[in-house]
Specification:
The structure holds two protein chains of two kinds.
Chain A: H1 2-28, H2 34-38, H3 45-55, H4 61-73, H5 87-122, H6 127-141, H7 144-158, H8 170-200, H9 203-210, H10 215-253, H11 258-267, H12 271-299
Chain B: H1 3-11, H2 14-31, H3 33-36, H4 73-109, H5 111-125, H6 129-140, H7 144-171, H8 174-181, H9 186-222, H10 234-241, H11 250-276
Helix pairs in contact in B: 2-4, 2-11, 4-5, 4-7, 4-9, 4-11, 5-7, 6-7, 7-9, 8-9, 9-10, 9-11, 10-11
The chains are: A mainly alpha, B mainly alpha.
């Protein structure tokens, strides 16, 4: 078990190392002189040269890369050209907002999808099952682009029940969370359903029925536990599409998290920020997936064997 | 699997039938649009802006209304759809080509090749697809070929993983082992014995990639990093219509429904295919 965990941590560090190289060189490919973005307009060649020197642009690339990595490890993500303050400060300001959206969406998504998946799976082929699958397929087909605009149109513009944009009150949270939670819940419902169907056909479930345990208890206690692994894995996997979704959702609803920050930074070519956001989102995903694998190895120790 | 069984299952799978029918209709409507559209998709006509949908004179009236520049929404919808679907076709074809080739190599030869390819997949998967595409588009600048590159870059891994996992299982099966023992050449085994057997899985994952590509292109165009105004795409139509949707909702509803319908039908198709091609299902 310990060996598996250490191996998994090693893999994660390696992946993040490569991602950091990618992020570094991607931004190097960007057109334009980064020094020009840091000096006042109309500066003389000498001032620009001095800034290039200060940024270390004349050093060999590998020297620049190692300086970049060592800065990151010291918590310095560079200077935002858009805000002219350290990237780390802005990210730290914005991250809690995205975390709030993320936690709320995952909680809402799980609370809806797991019961729906269990009911659908244990009533396979009935009207309930068909309804749940239809709702799920519809959810997987709504893009964040259209769902966010659609919900805003219906609930803010037409019905006037909820605020269209901004943040502050709990009412502002509802539409962004609904946009992010629905597609995720749709996927989890389907996985939970097929997990329950697979589990219910196992012999030990038949045995629990034979012992006279109620159907409700069998579904929710015995079958759910075994259908949990694919669900936990899926939550780890969807975190990627989830972060992608926040870029759209935060842009549409004016939610100042890191998704909106990504979109703004790209528009004003704030490359230090873009670079850091790639690295931060990759780290989040890699670490969450590592934790998911480790949790799963505790639920089912056989997983450490492969 | 027997063709007859597959055809029979297709006929009895409502998801497959609905999905395939909508896709064929969408393709026909979008790709035949040059034959029937009555308006120019990009030239503005400010005298006629914000016209409500009007069905009175068929296609010569603005059946889905006009936008803030007085352009016919229906015309932009079908022309934009042609662009979006063309991009999706190119992107998925490239994703499948790259993913299948690398997946066959990694799964069949294993060892170092497998480790390298799998690490590569893990690295690409660790960056959210849309964020990766946004960063690439931002650095390389918006153009059609850059858009395709950005979308292929993050998407081939899904095809690759499915192919590789299937090859891994197939390689251990008796008929493949027998060929190896009989001295069959590697290209023959990979192309004639293994490849046909992963094809069904590639169909399933391919139709999912279609839906995913349409969504991603819409998101990029929505963020003004994909198809650029004045050229229409469903994503940038929704983005442009957002400002006016409280008073002129047709500007966002038309492209939104088109987008959903396209993705829904590819998801239906993928789901149907998975059922139809499931080898474990009883005949």
């Amino acid at each position: 078990m310990l060996e598996y965990i250490l191996k998994r941590i090693g893999q994660t560090i390696f992946v993040l190392f490569i991602v950091s190289i990618f992020a570094f060189f991607l931004i190097r490919l960007a057109p334009g002189n980064p020094a020009l973005l840091m000096v006042p307009d109309g500066s003389s060649d000498e001032v620009i040269r001095a800034m290039e020197e200060k940024l270390g642009l004349h050093d060999p690339l590998y020297v620049q890369y190692f300086r970049y990595i060592s800065d990151i490890l010291h918590g310095d993500l560079g200077q935002s050209t858009q805000y002219r303050v350290p990237v780390a400060k802005i990210v730290a300001d914005r991250l809690p907002n995205t975390a709030l959206l993320a936690v709320a969406s995952v909680v809402v998504g799980l609370l809806i999808s797991i019961p729906l998946g269990i009911v659908a799976g244990s009533h396979r082929g009935t009207g309930v099952d068909f309804f749940a699958m239809f709702v799920a397929l519809l959810g997987q087909s709504f893009s964040p682009v259209w769902l966010s605009v659609f919900l805003m149109l219906v609930f803010a513009n037409v019905l006037g029940l909820l605020p269209a944009m901004g943040m502050g009150s709990w009412k502002n949270l509802i539409l962004p969370v609904a946009t992010l939670a629905y597609p995720m819940a749709a996927q989890i419902t389907r996985v939970a359903r097929s997990g329950i169907i697979d589990t219910l056909s196992e012999d030990y479930i038949t045995a629990t029925y034979a012992k006279g345990i109620s159907r409700f208890e069998v579904n929710w206690k015995y079958a759910l536990k075994n259908a949990l692994i694919p669900i936990v894995t899926l939550v780890g996997i969807t975190i990627g599409s989830f972060l992608s979704g926040t870029v759209i959702v935060e842009t549409v609803f004016g939610w100042s998290g890191i998704g909106q920050l990504m979109q703004q930074s790209v528009n004003v070519r704030d490359y230090a920020m873009v670079q850091s956001l790639i690295l931060i989102s990759a780290s989040l995903i890699a670490i969450i997936n590592m934790i998911v694998d480790i949790i799963n190895s505790f639920i089912d120790p056989r997983m450490t064997l492969s | 699997m027997d063709k007859k069984i597959i055809l029979n299952r297709m006929k009895h799978n409502p998801f497959f039938i609905i999905g395939a029918t909508i896709i064929v209709l969408l393709l026909l409507i979008c790709f035949l649009s040059p034959l029937y559209i009555q308006f120019d998709p990009t030239v503005s006509d400010l005298a006629n802006k914000f016209q409500a949908p009007d069905l009175s004179a068929g296609l010569s009236s603005h059946i889905l209304g006009t936008d803030n520049m007085g352009r016919d929404v229906f015309t932009r919808l079908v022309v934009g759809g042609r662009v979006s679907l063309t991009i999706a076709i190119i992107v998925v074809a490239l994703q499948i080509s790259i993913g299948v080739i690398l997946g066959l190599f990694a799964g069949y030869f294993g060892g170092v090749i497998d480790i390298i390819v799998m690490r590569l997949c893990e690295i690409v998967l660790s960056i959210p697809q849309l964020i990766l595409a946004i960063a690439i588009m931002a650095v390389m600048g918006p153009s059609l070929s850059n858009l395709v590159f950005a979308m292929v870059f993050g998407g081939w891994v899904h095809v690759c993983k499915v192919t590789r996992n299937n090859v891994l299982v197939l390689r251990k099966q008796e008929f493949v082992q027998a060929s190896i023992v009989l001295g069959a050449k590697t290209p023959h085994i990979v192309l004639r014995q293994i490849f046909p057997n992963v094809l069904t899985q590639i169909f399933v994952v391919g139709s999912q990639r279609f839906g995913e590509s349409i969504l991603q292109e819409a998101a990029l165009s929505f963020l003004q990093l994909g198809i650029q105004a004045p050229d229409p795409a469903w994503g940038n139509m929704i983005s442009a219509g957002r400002t006016f949707m409280a008073t002129y909702p047709w500007m966002v509803v038309a492209p939104g429904i088109a987008l959903m319908l396209a993705v829904l039908s590819f998801n239906f198709l993928g789901d149907g295919l998975r059922d139809i091609l499931d080898p474990k299902r009883k005949v």
